[in-house]
Amino acid sequence: MNNSIDFYTTHSLITAPGSQARLLDRLPDYVAALCKVIQGLIIHIFWTEHYGVQLSEERKAEVQLRSVARQLERIHELDPRLLVEQREPDRRLVGNCRDFSVMLTALLRQHGVPARARCGFARYFIPNHFEDHWVCEVWDVAQRRWILVDAQLDAVQVNKLGISFNPLDVPRDAFLTGGKAWQICRLGQADPDTFGIGDLHGLWFVRGDLVRDVAALNKVELLPWDGWGLIERGDNELSADDLAAMDDMAELTAGEVPELERVRRRYANDSRWRVPGTIRSYTVEGVRTVALEGA
To answer: What is the predicted pLDDT for the residue at 285?
Structure first.
């Protein structure tokens, strides 16, 4: 295994289970089974009605849990049974696509399996639209390639969305990384206003997913509404050098990232990309300053 792949076999600050590691005992170590486990532990905040669940404001706040350790703690509070025991929908942790993806990343890394979260856009939620989305990318030893896995897509969602592909091997044209989305928008091959979520869309939104994907590739898997560096600059504040840096990083991260060391060096040496110790989180309640130590 080369160093680039080996980098993703160990935990980040975000994926480390910490004091909750005991909960991961006796979990399977293969992707399909782990996806089933996760689907029995987490319910997507935007899909609750399809499972007959109405959320209180207190429960909705669970999407703010940034680290896997704190998510596992809350899962255990809601239902103390073994994680392989599927919870009723109303007893599952409330999360979103990022949480399904980061949880799968964490469980695979716990077994030493190379895995990383990817931030970008999916084409399979709304017709003619690229929806803000996260998936997990897993190294397949036999095929010698990174495979995109959407752990969120259970039988309910596959049926509702009419998914025709295998969620355990999402086609590269069905999910675009932030870098790929930035590339095609900058080249005029796609309309930036078709990228986003709800009323939030445009090239500025694509820029945010590019930056978050670069951070995740460096094992800093933050929330979809966390902001720092290039994310927080207005369009009129971007210099020609900023745009060139993003174009170059998009080229490096558009696909499976064969030149990871270049990505890591640029991330480490350029504060426009690097996640600082304190960030801003743009929640529906307002902007919060968050210290990442302890996640």
So the answer is: 85
Beta bridge partners, 118, equal: 135
Count of CB atoms situated within 10 Å of the CB of 109: 22
- Kindly give the parts of the chain with pLDDT less than 50: none
Inter-residue contact 123 to 82 (CB < 8 Å): no
Residue of 97, 92, 104, 101 lying closest to 161 (CA atoms): 97
Identity of the residue numbered 158: V
Cα–Cα distance list, 43 to 90, 93, 156, 163 (Å): 8, 6, 12, 19
Question: With contact defined as beta carbons under 8 Å apart, do 282 and 225 qualify?
Answer: yes
pLDDT score of 284: 84
Lookup: tokens for 291: 């210290």
Query: What would you report as the CA-atom Rg of the chain, rounded to the nearest whole angstrom?
Result: 18
* pLDDT of 2: 72
Q: Where are the beta strands (DSSP E) in the chain?
A: 42-44, 93-95, 115-122, 130-140, 145-149, 175-177, 195-197, 200-201, 226-227, 278-283, 286-291
The pLDDT of residue 295 is 57
pLDDT at residue 82, as a whole number: 96
Contact yes or no for 180/135 (Cβ under 8 A): no
